[in-house]
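User: My collaborator sent over this chain with a note saying "see what the structure looks like." That's all I know about it. Can you take a look?
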Amino acid sequence: PLPPQSPLPGPAPIIEIWPLQKSSASNSGVPLARAACADLAECHVSGAFGPPAVGDGVVALVGELRKDGAKARQGETKSWWGGEAKSDAGVGDRLAHELPVNFGELMLNVIRPRLVLWFWEMKKFVVVEVEVAGEKSGDEGEWFFGAPVFWKRGLFLTGYLREERWRQPGLSVCFNRPTRLLWVPTLDGVPESGCLKGRWVTGEMYVALSPTVNEKLGQIAFLGRREKFITHCTELEIFKLIEVDDDFHVEKLNPQFEAGANIFRGVYLRVHEEARQFGMLLFRGEPWLVVNTASMGLRIVALINLKEPQNSRIVSLPDSANKSVICMSALDDKILLMVQSFTSPPQLWLGNYDDASDDFHYSMVHEVAPDIPDWLRDVKVQSIQVGEGERAQAWLLSPSTEMDANQEKSEEANVQRDGLRKTLEGVIDQVGRALADFKSVDGKTSKELDEVFSQAEELEKVLASARERFRELNAKLDDNLRGRPVGLRPLISRIHGGPHVSADSLFLLDTCLFLGLGHPMVVPNYRGSAGFGLDYLECLAGNAGRFDVDDCHSAALKALEIIHADDVEYAKQSSRFAPSQRELVAFGGSHGGFMTAWLLGDPKYHMAYKCGVLWNPASSLHGLFASSDIPEWVLAESGRLDDSHLDAEKSRAADDAIWAASPMSVVSNVSAPALVVLGLADARVPPAGGLRWAQAASRARKARGEKEVDVISFEGQGHGITGPGCYEDAIASIAMWIEKTTI
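Assistant: Without extra context I'll predict from the sequence alone. Here is the result:
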């Protein structure tokens, strides 16, 4: 917000530019320039828009244009892709809620995005239109431009085609739309006309995402796909732009690896990374593109040799088995990495290239929580292959049972049990303190590091509230947990959403909490997950509700077999999943909630589950198609991502396919207790669908004389329920509910 004495009419975004290093004491703590753009209502810096780009005396960014120039926008409710404001208070008999004003959680209030140039030395803002072959961007233009990147005296922009086949899909999450790179040759002088003219440089490629450039190395690289694909995310290919006589040629790279080739399965961006720019390195006299990607349940870093791609490399650190490695920054011959796992808090490692060994030498420069508790260190982590033909991968996390063996023999053991549960508070404190310490270094962190630490940041903001919640959890579980051996606690199947993302080995609050409470966990990467090859990812389209559900249940069975491998009596059970012997807990969000709903209702599997937790579940696909900001997700996962919904006969077949894929089709079979957790401002999976599933499941359970489904809602929270204190509240409430339900 502007200071009270500001003469500007109403709120406007303030933009500052700072020196990368303090060049003298005179500018210590002072920005080089600071201004407010009166023509903008706000700046868009996430998702498809990309962060601001800094050139020679100019900054390029995407902002939201005010309705009437400098006048504040009033009363506009129409979102950029056409979602109208509407409310439906009182839907459902359990709680009232209000549907969001605009669809698209990272696209709220996006109505007229514009490219803005700030010539900061000249103290001038220019809101520009972009013209390509006679077509202009803007309200009526065919293309929207974002993700600015400077190159020499010109500018690269990423162009997104406005599609109207069913509705404008949510740009903040879906890569499946025509996307090209535009080159604006020169920005010399201030474009008084407010119009920039450019040309496409990626031809008819279906997708070309924001390039990584290094003018010093003379290299331009980007990720994309030549052919159209069917899923909302996909495996991407690596390309170079080669500048020839004021034009650009596209060259595809096919990297091969001297070592680690078995672990590289392609390039997969995470959600909201479509404008992500990776770094470049220079060593051995060669330019290297640094790429973060998913691979077989891990995050890995690939170094792509841009001159000799057949000699590319995978970053390998000592003692990094079952750990994820993420590049935070790369410059010249140095690389900064974050290393973490399910049981290891993040560490920062700095790599320096050594000519003599032709390799990087790594040293740890920061450790978030060096004093993690013994019980967390003792958790056994193993990757297992599951399903028919061992087609799918899963992580099995097994807490140590040593403490429980003496649980009934000693009151001291009960004291240790209390300490085990309370240790999580100590982990929270350590993460918060370490984050504060780290932020004191150079006074800032990178955007990516902030994202990785987002949960810790929220904990830092509301630490007092979080501590109180976990104390309450400890108190309520005190009597229930004493004397219960780990082996008798239900296995929690933690199911990732997406579906075309992956369950990677990362340090997460909910995982630590469940492990600390003694629950073994299985974390499956079912068919459709990223990081296992293109065929593995795409095979789920048209098979959602079958392939993914089968793989998740198979993973749970395999985990139980491993956990009880030495239990002779267990092996003799003829009917392992009789109603009195339910051993599994399913917990998933979004598409993971979709699968949890399936597991609780599938006639083949539902009797195996003691209970289930559905976090903003995609439970009603018909309703989701009509209300979500990514309606094409419904068509793709039900195998109908074409124009079949425009033809009456084909539309009926599509309708049948959508119903068959929806867990609402089996909700009458739900017999296990269930908890539905909802963000009432969720635009990705609006809460009405979760409420409908809860109502239908409650009717089925009440007919059998069983308790209704429980619902927890969070006002104003979106898909991730990430508001200060809300995430911690949700996780603690889920843990308490699971403990009460499974005793």
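A starting point for your reply to your collaborator: The longest strand covers residues 286-295.
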